[in-house]
Structure formats: C-alpha cells, structure tokens
Amino acid sequence: MENRSSKEHDAENARITHQMLKSRTGEFDLESILFLKLRGIGLYELGCIGDCLNLERLDLSNNHITHLGPLSSLKLMVALNVACNRISSVEPLASCENLQSLNLAGNLLCSVDNLQCLRGLHRLESIRLRDPVHNLSNSLCNNGAYRHSVLDTIPSVQVVDGERVTGCGSDLYHLCKDIDNSLKRFVSNGTIDVLKSVKPWVEEGYWELKPAHSTIIEETYKQFNDVLQECKELSKRADDTIAQAERALNIRHELNSYVF
Fold first, then answer.
1. 237 alpha carbon, distance to own chain's centre
2. How far is the C-alpha of 55 from the C-alpha of 32, rounded, in Å?
3. Structure confidence by residue, pLDDT tens digits, 186-226
4. According to DSSP H, which parts of 29-123 are helical?
5. What are phi and psi of 28, to 5 degrees?
6. How far apart are CA 99 and CA 97, in angstroms?
7. Around Cβ 181, how many Cβ atoms within 10 Å?
C-alpha cells in the first residue's frame, strides 16, 4: 500500500495542474500568484504554469523538466530558477522580456549558441550556468572561455555564475586580471623583474564608493521581504496553534477537576 501511495503521489506531482497550484499557494485565481516555489517535487511537465500570467519569481529547480514551452507566456517574470533539470533549449524564454535573473546550472546546454535566443532580453543581468557549491554545470562550461562567450552573446549580462564581470563592482575582477597578465610578462626563470618606474594601477579616487541602483539588489531585497513575510505568517499560525492547545488543556483540566 505504501509503494502504491508513493507512486500515486509521484504521478500527481509529475505535471503542474490548476489544483496543485491552488493547493500550494492558496490562491483560487492563478493570475494572483506572484511567487511560486516548486522545487524538487518530481515535475516532468509544466502543464498550466503559463496561466499564472502575473508570476514574477519562479523556482523549478531539482526536477525532471525537459521543455520550457509554457513559460513563454510569463511576460512579467523577473527571476527564474530551473537549475538541476534536463533542459537543452531555452528558446521559450526569449519572450520573457522582463527576465533579470536566470539560473540554468545543472542542465544539458552544450553550446553558448543555445543562449543566442536570449540576446533580445535587455533586462537580463544575471545568468548562472555553473554552481560549484552544488556540483552543477553544463557541458558548455567545459570551454574555459565560456564566460566571455556568454557576455558576447548576451550584452546585457553583468553577472555570470555569481561573479560580477561587467558594470559597477567588476572593477576589482578586471584589475586582478590585468595584474595577472602583467606578472606573466615579467616572470622569467622563476624571478620577477622590477620596473624602474612604476605607474599606479588606477587613478586617484578609483576606490571611492559610488551609489549603485541594481535590479539584482532590488530583487534580493524583494525576495528577503517575501521570506520575512512568510516567517511572520508562520509565527502567527504557530502562536494561534499554541493558544488553541493551551485552551484545550485548560478545559480538560477543568473537566477533570469537576469530575473528581
């Protein structure tokens, strides 16, 4: 019976349905769903996910998804996590014009050419193709120069695999690269030739902090506030449950006192 029940449960979760979305979010109207987390539930098909037209953040990581077709109607989606699936094409995402953050680590993308369709996403700032912490990657990452190819393919991208490589915050990254390249030229027989006249690497005022308004930072704050709100709601529910339990215990105690 347990094996049968487990198989039935897996079959129910294999495809996204209206009932699944309603039960997980508590929303009767799918267009009211703004944030959705369906991580690691055994999904194979996206089903009716395209009906959540106002969805902004979606987590589909750790499933068995191969096709992203239904996501093409999610014009307002800002952040998408499809890490650890079986995706070989991201063509449907070309119409997600508001997409800013995309996690594709741990899929079947074999060439940067697979990302050409994302070139028109002018708001896409962050893309992840490799996640060494969770040992996730794509075969295209076997090419050591894949990050540069990604930047050439999608000009709007500023962060690759969690590392800011363009825009504000990338200066140190490029500076270190310049230093490494320069040192390689000066290293000879295990020694480093010291130049007589050394010019500063950067101009005066280079390291001064400058205000930056990044959609990635804004997105992080939004996600934090969402999680905080969820925690507050869970805390309130816990308090209500404890209060109900205490009332039940008090009533039981009074009844016992009355009987004896």
1. 28
2. 8
3. 554 454 444 444 455 556 665 555 555 555 666 666 777 77
4. none
5. -80, -35
6. 6
7. 9
Please identify which residue in the block is written with the tokens 């050409």.
116
Which tokens belong to 101? 């953050």
Number of C-alpha atoms within 13 angstroms, CB side, residue 42? 10
Find where tokens 């905080």 sit.
Answer: 228
User: Exposure pattern of 223-259 as b/e (b: 16+ CB <10 Å)?
Assistant: eeeeeeeeeeeeeeeeeeeeeeeeeeeeeeeeeeeee
SS3 state at 166: coil
Return all residues near 260 (Cβ < 8 A) that are at least 6 apart: none
For residue 200, count other CB atoms closer than 10 A to its CB: 7
Distance separating alpha carbons of residues 30 and 177, to the nearest angstrom:
48
Q: Are 44 and 68 in contact (CB under 8 A)?
A: no
Paired tokens of 170: 């990338």
Report the chain's C-alpha Rg in angstroms.
26
To the question of pTM greater than 0.85 for the whole model, the response is no
What pLDDT sits at residue 213?
A: 53
DSSP notation for 98-152? T--EEE--SS----GGGGGGGTT-TT--EEES-BTTTTB--GGGGSTTHHHHHHH
> What's the CA angle centered on 91, arms 159 and 20, to 5 degrees?
90
Which residues touch 31 (CB under 8 Å, ≥6 apart)? 51, 52, 53, 54
Rounded to whole angstroms, the Cα distance separating 126 from 216 reads 8
